[in-house]
Amino acid sequence: MKNRKGQFLVGVLVLLAVLAIIVPVMVKYIRNESLWSEKQAENTNAFQLAEAAVDRGYQKVCESTTTWNNIKKGLPIAGFNFDTVYTDMSGGTYTISITSGPLTQQVTILAVGRDRYKKETRALKVIYGNSVMDDVSVAAAEGVTMNGSNIQVEWGAVTSPNAVSILTKTHPSFWSAAGIDKDTNGAAPPNCDAPNCWWWHSYDSNLPPMPQIDFAAYKSSAIAEGTDPCGNAYYQPGNFSKNCDSLNGNTYYIAGSWTGFRSAIVGNIIVLGNFTFSNGSQHTVGSYNAAVPPTAWKQYCDDWGYYQDNYDPSVPDSPVCFGNINNSTQRTGLYSSINPAIHGFMYVGGDMTLPNGGGSDDLVHGAVIVNGNANINSNSHCKIYYDPNVAANILTTKIYLTRVSWLDSTQKWPSTLP
After folding, report:
1. Which end of the chain is more exposed for a tag (fewer CB within 10 A), N or C?
2. 191 and 246 together in one domain
């Protein structure tokens, strides 16, 4: 009996010893879990504040073209230079920095959120780009007819909210909110070059709207520039048919139509009526090595051999296109010798008609917007090349922002702020 009592006492002592070890551990764990939960809640709150800060920064960037241009110039924007603590959210505070870059026509929003107890901060770095003509060589509101046997569009897509006719063309990529002549079954799917959908896309409801050009800015620029080297006014209130080689980067603004065009122009051409090239060879601005846009390869996924032969022989024989590589892949350091008639932005309010017969010309290196029909039917050996730098500097009355990247950042709460 005494042995049993002794054994019982030993068991009690062992249990007490175990409890003496476990209970403090459990109490510490519960206490830490409470702290961890609180910390997680504060961290989540700080993250939500950073997201709210990004949204506020985005709204500021979209505020006006004046704001956008000031950011591009590197001018600090009051309230968006890590100089203001915003307190409009109940969960804490946030601050914002908006800077230009890293590339042309891009802005970086750096947003830092801090919980109400000032214990947790989270930061986000978001880059937006102004995509007026994002990888688009020719955009035509009333449709595109590209049936000429020798005309080619290079490095950028062809788009239209209306019908597009391409016949035997195998590049670049073609996009339409209506029909494309390759789509033999009409609006019924599939509405792309199945199975890859690399080449053409018809009845695309996500096609962006035509850019809203800032005509007032271009007109005032042309008026201020006076006369071209041949004595013609850069601003013409009616129709125009004269020609002149103007390589100074100025803007021609023609309120009517421009017919019989045969000039060499470095600058912008704004024609509110029709624009017609003269037949035969064109004047040219002179040969130069043009940088092939880093993402030009996307326009040749169904014509890979052409891309290899003309621009990038280093790529493998099989098309390394969408789905096979990251879509952000860039091919840098590529150049092609070209000699265009026009290097700059072209806007045509009516129809655009290319030259026919004779000549072997690079017509345009830049970006082309046609409010009417783009009659790209030339039987001359003509080419239109996309230049993203030209596209990035088109003046518009509206900012067309697309998100380029969205990343967590290690940015701390600025030491200059309370």
Report:
1. N
2. yes
